[in-house]
């Protein structure tokens, strides 16, 4: 229309131009001429807007109130208009339904009906650029919808795991029969970082750990443990599972591939009227469930072909094909990775080490009463602690167990160590007593007895040399550094050459000088 208006103002507009517009837009010539007339009079380019019903903010609020039910909103608007005496201003139900479809997107309509989860299914998500192995790990908790047997009760366990974003490898797993805490996160992280023993060959230090706002992941113990290796934690906003889609997809795959086939699955379709769950006797024991889950994790890493990997590889193949070097952590540094330190310094007493008003003992504490120590412990477990030297926190002294819960074997071990220490001291004292006494040989004649043990000349020289080395007074060198001259104001002693000797009584010199006069300063 802008082109037609320009031709019209210059007087160059013809019917041929109008017919060209009609063929291009698929409308009649009368419609184009009507648009041109509206442009001449009102300055409106294109078709004239029609007066029709639109979805207002009040209508949106009513749709949210009635869960997206347009018919209920129409009845509400009709009742309001009748109370105000304006019933004719309410459009028909069909008109309102068309307006809702036209003015609201499919995601908005689904959100008004089913909430945020339903609306999110109509969103468009981008994909992060590909990265190398250990560039980022994603961690999450998942409540297992499977009832298992534990001590005669049925419980639904939880799994805490970490997955490598680049290769889809499950690096660390921890299972708890209840809602997990920070100890489960630390155990899973330690299993993921370590590459020795049953945890390898996957692992190493990640460059980033991405988690949601779970308090277990963001607790001080986890931040401190990862911060010791300079690994940052990316705290994602709440209710944004799509931002850690790798581990969320793993949660869904676990349920679809494994959990639906296990006894005690709580989301299984049941016949009408069958609401009773499986009895406890028919449930899988907790230990068997953990074994089945770990076997599935091994199958996922070595045999499964998840979507998104290059050339249809397995996670293990993708991990081994990645040339990115791995950064391993020595096992001596990971030995106490999952332990917490309260920062206090304690002393070993005759009752052991006191922690949380309870005593902890161990056989190695015998003979170390008074030693200053620091404690490390596993969160939510007080049956055993690790004791470290307060002067050198990296020096591990040993483990200690709760004294009130000590077993008979542990008490016997403690008594055995005390008795062993006592016997060793007694033997040392007896040996010292033998060295202190000199024993002589028996004699039958009136002669001087001889010592039982004869010392050779070489032994005597060695003992004398050793005594000279250990005698600090003999090793002192008084003339090594000559003394400095005293200050000029100090009184100096007289030299031996100028000092006159005093006569000694009853001596010849004294008799020869008996008649001489005593010096003035003499008291004689």
Question: In words, what does this structure look like?
Answer:
- This protein is of the alpha+beta class and 524 residues long.
- It has 18 helices and 14 strands.
- The strands form three sheets. The chain has a six-stranded antiparallel sheet with strand order 9-12-13-14-11-10, with no helix packed on it.
- Strand 13 (384-389) and strand 14 form a beta hairpin.
- The longest helix has 29 residues, at 408-436.
Which outline best applies? elongated
Q: How do the strands of the widest beta sheet line up side by side?
A: 9-12-13-14-11-10
Distance between the termini: 147 Å
Q: If you compute it from the alpha carbons, what radius of gyration comes out, rounded to the nearest whole angstrom?
A: 47 Å
Number of distinct helices = 18
**Arithmetic mean of pLDDT:** 82
Which regions have little confidence, pLDDT < 50, spanning 5+ residues? 507-524
Number of strands: 14
Attribute tags:
five-stranded mixed beta sheet; elongated; disordered C terminus; alpha+beta; 524 residues
